[in-house]
Amino acid sequence: MPELPEVETIARGLDKRVRGDVIESVWLGKHREPLKSSAPEIAAVLRGARISQVRRVGKHIVFDLESKSSRNGRGQRQWIVHLGMTGQMLVTSPEAELQKHTHAIASLSSGRELRFVDARRFGRLSVTNEQGFAGPGTEPLTVTADDFAKLFHGRKTSIKAALLNQKLLHGVGNIYADESLFRAGIRPRRQAGRLTRVELDRLHASLKEVLKEAIKLGGSSVSDYVDAEGRAGFFQLQHRVYLRTGQPCLVCKTPIKRLVLGGRGTHYCPQCQS
DNA sequence: CATGTTTCCTGACAGC
DNA sequence: TGCTGTCAGGAAACAT
Question: Model's pTM, two decimal places?
Fold first, then answer.
């Protein structure tokens, strides 16, 4: 499932390949409305727009658009894509075989296509007028240790659930929550507001570290994640607890345990994490 | 507001 | 083989 490192990888790939390209026409699947903005609204904003940049905000891909039509003078719009669990944003040739569950196609003036494919349909497309789409929370890669610690102050929920809360930090999902807690030596069930400052500092450092390493390896491919060129990532080979239930801890050999927190499978080492 | 629960959706996998 | 049932999981909607 695409989290921060995966979305970062995809956004970088997209920026490299479609920056400066112009969206000539748009096709949006009919099905039900799997979209946040209405389909006609999205099509109207995308058609004729030049992609000035592609970047990541939290788990969102943001296409910064310059709209040529000077109907109201201001062309600063954005196409926001959230991949959900199984979403893919691919750059293909028009001849490439149409994958099942393709929900949107943008034809580019360079002759290629941007395709949004999403089997489970948890992904969302929308357009916005906001000058700077900020996303729901704070960026884990740039937040200071002080601000990071403040996010959890007084929280009665588990640290695992708090890490997944996009209104606090955005971009952290199940994989990197488990992996950062392991590296910080903190049990996922601990109450967020009761962590010591030392522990929070350790978690802050571990989270940044694991996210950066994952970006270097192109993200984790656990379900059907691929980047803009259809390539898998390699960070899944570095996972220390995620999806390793029953296997020996890489540090102490204790079998990794699994429990459910915040509705998600949660993996940890009962020996290394206290 | 903070937190917990339900819902959406399909592929994968277990069991018969 | 093929059917049925169960489950995962991000985040919005809803309930408490």
Answer: 0.91
DSSP per-residue codes, A20-46: T-BEEEEEE--SS---SS-HHHHHHHH
Closest CA to A229 of A2, A3, A9: A9
A2-11 pLDDT, tens digit each: 999 999 999 9
pLDDT at position A37 is 76
User: Same structural domain for residues A149 and A260?
Assistant: yes
Q: Is the CB of A265 under 7 A from strand C?
A: yes
Enter the tokens of residue A254. 């204790």
Terminal CA-CA length for chain A: 27
The answer to whether A235 touches A220, Cβ cutoff 8 Å, is: yes
Q: Is the CB of A194 under 7 A from strand B?
A: no
Same domain, A98 and A209: no
Both A162 and A254 in one domain: the answer is: yes
For residue A252, the tally of other CB atoms under 10 A from its CB is: 10
In a domain, A274, yes or no: no
CATH number for the domain harbouring residue A184: 1.10.8.50
